[in-house]
Amino acid sequence: MAKRIEDLKVIENKHLNNDFFILELSGDTKIPEFKPGQFAQVRVDGSPETFLRRPISIHDVDYEKNSFKLLIQIAGNGTKKLSELRYGDILNLIYPLGNSFSLPNEKEKVLIVGGGCGIAPLLFLGKYLNSNGTVPDILLGFRNNDRIIEFEDYLKIGNVFVTTEDGSMGEKGYVTSHSVFSAHKYNRICCCGPDSMMKAIAAYCKNRKIICEVSLENLMACGIGACLCCVVDTVNGNFCTCIDGPVFNVNDLKW
Ligand SMILES: Cc1cc2nc3c(=O)[nH]c(=O)nc-3n(C[C@H](O)[C@H](O)[C@H](O)COP(=O)(O)OP(=O)(O)OC[C@H]3O[C@@H](n4cnc5c(N)ncnc54)[C@H](O)[C@@H]3O)c2cc1C
Ligand code: FES
């Protein structure tokens, strides 16, 4: 898929809570056919500390409206600056970048697992699976019920299970200890979140020969395979997370 460098217009900046906001973007040209797991390199204007673009996943896509959304957690200067964008502001993106989650066949039982800002690429993944005939189970992990975002949107695309660290909603604990793993037999698990969470899910899947794909959030600079700062060590050698990933089958990772 051809990459674009494009100025897009912010048509909404919706703040979900103190940490998360959603930018909806649209432009003059037709948006591309995105694949789930792809991301954009976002230029942060007006922030002298933020020299490099920031990688942000494609969160949701509306082809009829010719718009798409980025779900962003405020982590530092760059994302803070992005959180201040208003209707009509212009955002420069290089996109769509990276590979995507692979499609299951219609017989596979699929679980999607997300934690923290790792849930960002999973809404579009769920919708993409729906359009290909799969209704996934979805397990979302949050610190507490104040941090739960977009719950209703996930309910529309699958069977949703929640964990919170303090038990204020769903089961108490981390996603990796949720009862969904003992209650159901999955053929495939798609995952994005903290490394520790993805490694635990990867170990679970490897022991049971379940197909498992994870979306890595390695630090990135160029996002286009030029600087090698995002290299990941795989069983087949070193690969760039930005162009060979961010989605990897866990059997290819040295985890
Ligand atoms: C392929 C990919 C997709 C991503 N998608 C999203 C998304 O959809 N929504 C979202 O909120 N975030 C996403 N991230 C993480 C996001 O890019 C970082 O949080 C962001 O670059 C931080 O920039 P900053 O200037 O605000 O913070 P900085 O000041 O640069 O860093 C603040 C803190 O965030 C950490 N950080 C910086 N970059 C990353 C990173 N790549 N991953 C994890 N922690 C990081 C730093 O180590 C530091 O502790 C994604 C990362 C990758 C690689
Ligand atoms: S971020 Fe530069 S090579 Fe991947």
Neighbour order of strands in the largest sheet: 4-3-7-1-2-6-5
What compounds sit in this structure? Answer: flavin-adenine dinucleotide, FE2/S2 (inorganic) cluster
Secondary-structure element pattern, one letter each: EEEEEEHEEHEHEEHEHEEEE
Write down how many β-strands occur, each being a DSSP E stretch of 2 or more residues. Answer: 16
| Structural class by sheet pairing and helices | alpha/beta
Report the span from N to C terminus: 30 Å
Helix content: 10-25%
| Beta-strand percent range | 25-35%
Rounded to an integer in angstroms, the radius of gyration calculated over CA atoms is 18 Å
Shape field: globular
Q: Report mean pLDDT, rounded to a whole number.
A: 94
Report what the structure shows.
The protein has helices at 77-83, 122-131, 151-155, 180-183, 195-208, and strands spanning 4-15, 20-26, 39-42, 54-57, 60-62, 67-73, 90-97, 110-115, 137-142, 159-164, 171-172, 188-192, 211-215, 231-234, 237-240, 247-249. It has 255 residues and is of the alpha/beta class. The chain is globular. The strands form three sheets. Strands 4-3-7-1-2-6-5 form a seven-stranded antiparallel sheet. Strands 11-10-9-8-12-13-16 form a seven-stranded mixed sheet. The model has no long low-confidence stretch (mean pLDDT 94). Strand 5 and strand 6 (67-73) form a beta hairpin. The protein has five helices and 16 strands. Helices cover 16% and strands 34% of the residues. It starts with a strand and ends in a 6-residue tail after the last strand. Bound molecules: flavin-adenine dinucleotide and FE2/S2 (inorganic) cluster. FE2/S2 (inorganic) cluster binds next to loops. FE2/S2 (inorganic) cluster binds at residues 220-223, 225-230, 240, 242.
